[in-house]
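Would you mind writing out the residues of a protein together with its fold in token form for me to study?
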Amino acid sequence: MRPEPNPTTLTTRGWADYALLDSGDGRKLERYGRFTVVRPEPQCLWPPRLPAEAWDKADAVFDPSDEDDAGNWRFKQTPPETWPLSWGEAKFNARFTNFRHLAFFPEQAANWEWMRARAKARPMRVLNLFGYTGVASLVLAAAGAEVTHVDASKRAVAWGKENAALSGIENIRWIVEDARKWLQREERRGAKYDAIVLDPPKYGRGPTGEVWRLFEDLPELTRLAASLLSDEADFLLVNAYAARISGLSLSHLLAATLENRAGKIDWGELALAEDGETGRALGLSFFARWSAT
């Protein structure tokens, strides 16, 4: 099996609870529900379209403190700890984290749409690794899938459970565990899944200090994930935010790992588009996904 010859750009456009309002000069201006925020985005090399007054009215501005996305927020007024947002049937809390984002990644909506359609087409057991606060798990569960959500962060899983309660969703099994250890145990148990989502960070630590490094550890993790795919499996999706990786390299990893399976592998980039028909788009992560049909 060979990957598709050409890349695909999956573009997320704003919805009722989110919009990319403007971008430029290394920043982006976004709306999360009732709050507007300014966050750094070094690849925005162009000038903003909106006047400076629009940016100055933002409720929150993130000031980075290092190259690892850490930093601090400045607020016009003290915000609530959380406030509810939704995408489709999934309801979840936004919150200002110390790592630039707001506890979910809006560009992933393009993947959510694809996974939701596949989960609605047939019953499936799904494993979501590095699931963070669980929006993808909520989308899949709302579409009827039986979901196992795994993340090494106890806090992230707690936030995910809050989101599930907010959504009224109960068909998710929540696991606090190192992803590699979980896959190894599931392989020994002979567990099988019909779909698997891998969205690993560039670097991380498990609950007992296990170290994760994307380039060193992703090949083994992908092999372990592939070993858990059922004979009737539907898809395996890999997403990565590392600047030195590409959708093409992820696609060849999947092709080598799944060489004995039929199906197709598409690959490319996830992008966020500004409001308006002529809005510019920001490429923010890379993906490759195998699907049986």
Summary: DSSP finds seven helices and 17 strands in the chain. The chain has a mean pLDDT of 95. The radius of gyration is 19 Å. The chain has two domains: 8-12+105-291, 18-84.
